[in-house]
Specification:
single chain; alpha/beta; Aminopeptidase; six-stranded mixed sheet; 8 strands; about 15% strand; binds zinc ion
Length: about 250
């Protein structure tokens, strides 16, 4: 059977993703996979759209990493703002941990997931390696164990869930789609209990969007068009994950 190139590409992505997550796919999602097109509004979220906390890493006195004329806190905020725009276009609600150059502790960031009863939490960072290192690519982290502080924040009987299979699948969706959107090297998903994701009460991931220590990757990161691709991929991953959760809830 011959498919239109777009469909063929989408099917490949889909099969790879299904293999990653061991799950089936939805035609609604297939329809979303038009390369570089903004996410279409999701009619299933019209009534009470899920809320996503988008966290721009670092800020204020904490600049994060600095290399090749790039300061992490500025780039993370820029990408986070683009993710917000994409998610809102898809009909999701978004709360940013910061909208300017202000400092928040990791606990303050994670706590916003509880305050706003978020369905998902995504933290945006840039990666570094030693000076002159050629390491590049994108990787997505999720927490294997939810911090006690986060467990205590979930009210009894709440529908909020954290790592009961949620965050690893969430990380796979984001990682796969952000690499598909950017064609960046896929460094995979990794379990690590970074405080900001371990302390969030909902499925949470931290995306390292590229190495600013790499001269070639930092050059790409300086281009707004490339940052749009990163944001589009992250937003698609978030939307896919939430859509699948909605179907699972509806089907259970
Ligand atoms: Zn960082």
């Amino acid at each position: 059977m011959k498919f239109h190139p777009f469909i063929a590409q989408s099917l490949q992505t889909l099969v790879a993703f299904s293999a990653l997550t061991g799950s089936s796919f939805s035609l609604v999602w297939l329809e979303q996979q038009r390369a570089a097109a903004p996410l279409p509004r999701q009619s299933c979220w019209n009534e009470m759209a899920p809320l996503v906390v988008v966290d721009a890493g670092h800020g204020g006195h904490d600049g994060g990493a600095v290399a090749n004329g790039v300061i992490e806190k500025k780039l993370s905020l820029d990408i986070a703002n683009r993710v917000k725009k994409e998610l809102e276009a898809a009909g999701l609600r978004v709360v940013m941990t910061r909208t300017d150059d202000s400092f928040l502790s990791l606990d303050e960031r994670a706590a916003l997931a509880s305050t706003h009863q978020a369905a998902a939490f995504v933290s945006v960072h840039l990666n570094t390696d030693g000076a002159g290192s050629a390491a590049e690519g994108i990787e997505t982290y999720f927490a294997e164990t939810q911090a006690l502080s986060a467990r205590q924040l979930v009210p009894a009987g709440s529908s909020q869930r954290h790592n009961e299979g949620g965050s690893a699948e969430f990380a796979s969706a984001v990682q796969h789609l952000v690499c598909a959107a950017t064609k960046a090297e896929n460094r995979g998903t990794k379990a690590r209990d970074y405080a900001v994701v371990a302390r969030a009460v909902c499925p949470a991931v931290l995306v390292e969007c590229g190495f600013i220590t790499s001269t070639s990757e930092s050059a790409r990161l300086k281009q707004a068009g490339y940052r749009d691709k990163i944001a589009n991929g992250i937003a698609r991953g978030v939307a896919l994950f939430l859509q699948r959760q909605a179907f699972q809830v509806a089907g259970s």
